[in-house]
Amino acid sequence: MFEKVLIANRGEIALRIHRACREMGICTVAIHSTADSEAMHVRLADESVCIGPPAARDSYLNIPSIMAAAELTGARAIHPGYGFLSENAEFARIVEAHGLTLIGPKAQHIEMMGDKVAARQALDQLGIPLVPGSEGIVDSFHTAQRIAGEIGYPVLVKAVAGGGGRGMRVASSANELELEFAVARREASEAFGNDQVYIEKYLLNPRHIELQIMADSTGDVVHFGERDCSIQRRHQKILEEAPSPLLSEELRADICLRAVSAVQKLGYLGAGTLEFLFQDGEFYFIEMNTRIQVEHPVTEMITDIDLVCEQIRVAAGEPLSRCQEDIRFKGHAIECRINAESPVDFSPAPGQVTEYHPPGGGGVRVDSALYAGYRVPPFYDSMIGKLIVYGLSRDECLMRLKRSLEEFVIGGIETTLPLHRRLVSEPDFISANYDIHWLERLMKEWN
Ligand code: MV4
């Protein structure tokens, strides 16, 4: 096992990784920008290194500075968390070239899944159902029109280097496609420096369901079931739950079996998430994420497994702590993402936290690096914490969520807590009757 791990991230996930390391008897090195000197993960880590100015490109994305911090402190492994360098294949290669271990997948798999067409082709070959669409890159309007004619309109033009919702254009007719194809290419080129696009049938009212998997270096692969992440706004998830309230045992067993088999055949290592759209009882693969995700705690709550510990174990060459039969699913969990934002227009609202009183009691978990007096810096993502609530049934979970949201006090800054309080009283949320567009439609009604 590693003696010392460098945490190449900030905020709640840096603290989350520190906690896992501590419980495994591993020393931690925090890195931080000059804006994060007073951050909780820096205070708690065994050692800390300031690696640059506030702008992420000069600090949390600054590979030479991070490698120097690892060298200086003798950390032999690096956990990238999510965001920042977590899905950067070049970083993975550099870490490896220095004889260190990245707590994450191999560079080749990060690279493959970063290319959305390569990911589609690989998983198609391995028996994963895809959204109907082009087999590969579509390089002319003529080809785009032919494929759209075959699969039927509306279609979605997506960037090969995209993901997370950036670089997508919908076309409802051949006429619209001519314009949208050109716009998608130009936007892809500007956003990713790569103008390659592909085409999928545009699904009108799907849910977003993702599967958590983990692979070890012995070739063992397990799944931890699914998360329903349909409640989002502008491609930012707001609330996630596990299990999906709408999946039958048969459908779940089938897709999980396929996912495990595919990931095993890829020779994948570490944690991964297969993202699907789910509509009319069918799964359609869209992307695979090669990092630990923000919403991993809902899976931890219903399986009673520490996914970050498992990531560290498998990166160190140890086997997964449990085989599939020993992963038992029990109860229901919901996570609310709490952002330092106006609950009305979602504009960022950094500033000093004057009061901090998180909820507690049975079945309640708060993952946050906040404390009273902390100044939320304006330079980074606005997520400042996550409230995760567990119940034996979805109903019990909902009641607990309501009372936890009532208890939660964050003073001095605006947060999205009022939005969550309103959401959990919505009849369609309570009855789990929502799709990926539900929240945006609802918020239009509120205005
Ligand atoms: C789609 C889709 C409908 N049809 N693909 C957006 C993020 C990116 N990961 C994929 N996305 C979508 N792909 C087809 N063929 C709708 C979306 C989409 C979406 C997906 C998941 C969660 C929220 C979303 C919000 C808007 C659109």
Chart the SSEs and their pairings:
Elements (H helix, E strand, L loop, with lengths): L3 E4 L3 H13 L3 E7 L6 H5 L2 E6 L10 H11 L3 E3 L9 H9 L3 E2 L4 H8 L1 H10 L15 H11 L3 E9 L2 E6 L2 H19 L4 E5 L5 E9 L5 E13 L2 E7 L6 H18 L3 E10 L2 E8 L6 H8 L3 H9 L16 E8 L11 E2 L2 E3 L6 E5 L6 E2 L6 E9 L2 H14 L1 E3 L5 H7 L3 H4 L7 H9 L1
Ligand MV4 binds next to β6, β8 and β13.
Structure, explained:
The chain is 35% helix and 27% strand. By secondary structure, it is α+β, with helices and mostly antiparallel strands. The chain has 3 domains: 4-103, 3-Layer(aba) Sandwich (Rossmann fold); 132-201, Dna Ligase, domain 1; 207-446, D-amino Acid Aminotransferase, Chain A, domain 1. An 8-stranded antiparallel β-sheet has the order 13-12-9-10-11-14-19-17, with helices on both faces. The chain has a 5-stranded parallel β-sheet with strand order 3-2-1-4-5. Helix 4 links the parallel strand 4 (77-79) and strand 5 (101-102). Helix 4 runs antiparallel to helix 5 (107-114). It is globular, with a radius of gyration of 22 Å. The structure holds ligand MV4. Ligand MV4 binds next to strand 6, strand 8 and strand 13.
